[in-house]
Amino acid sequence: MLTDALSEADSEFETDCDSDTEALSEADSEFDTDCDSEIDSLTEADSEFETDCDSDTEALSEADSEFETDCDSETDSLSEVETEFDSDCDSEIDALSEVETEFDSDCDADVDSLSEAETEFDSDCEADVDSLSEADSELETDCDSDTDALT
C-alpha cells in the first residue's frame, strides 16, 4: 500500500511534471514566437526609419545643392552689378573731370577776357580823365581870359 501510494504519488508527480514541462515548453514557444514577431516588427521599423532617413538626407542634400547654386548665382549677379557700378562710377568721374577741366579752361578764358576789359577800361578811363583835365584847364584859361577882359 505504501508502495502503491508512492507509486501513485510518483505517477501524479510525473504527470504534473510532464504537464508543467509541457506548459513551460508551450510558454517558451509562445515567447519565442512573440519575440520573433517583435524582432521582425523592429527590423521592419528600423528599415523604414533607414529608408526615411536616407530620403531626408537626399532631400537635404538636394536642397543644399540648390541653395549653393542659388547662392553662387546671387554672388555672380552681385559681382556683375558691382563691376557695372564701378564702371559707371569711373565713367562719371571721367566725365566730371572733363567738365572740371572745361570749366577751368572757360574760367581762365573769362578771367583773361575780364583782365583785358579792365585794362581797356582803365586805359579809356585815364584817357577820359586826361581829356576832362585838358578841357577843365582850357575852361579855366578861357575863364581867366574872360575875367581879365572884364576887369
How would you sum up this structure in a few lines?
This protein is mainly alpha-helical and 151 residues long.
Number of domains: 1
| Proportion of beta-strand residues | under 5%
Kindly state the percentage of residues in helix: over 70%
Which of globular, elongated, flat, extended, rod-shaped describes the shape? rod-shaped
Q: How would you state the average pLDDT, rounded? A: 89
Q: Return residue spans where pLDDT drops below 50 for at least 5 consecutive residues.
A: none
What is the terminal separation in angstroms? 208 Å
Order of H and E elements: H
The count of β-strands is: 0
Structure classification: mainly alpha
Characterize the largest beta sheet: strand count, sense, and whether it forms a barrel: none
- Rounded to an integer, what's the Rg over CA atoms? 62 Å
Number of helices: 1
Structure description:
This protein is mainly α. It has one domain (1-151). It is 99% helix and 0% strand. It is built from one helix and no strands. The mean pLDDT is 89.
Please write out the topology.
Blueprint: H1 2-150
List keywords for this structure.
151 residues; mainly alpha; 1 helix
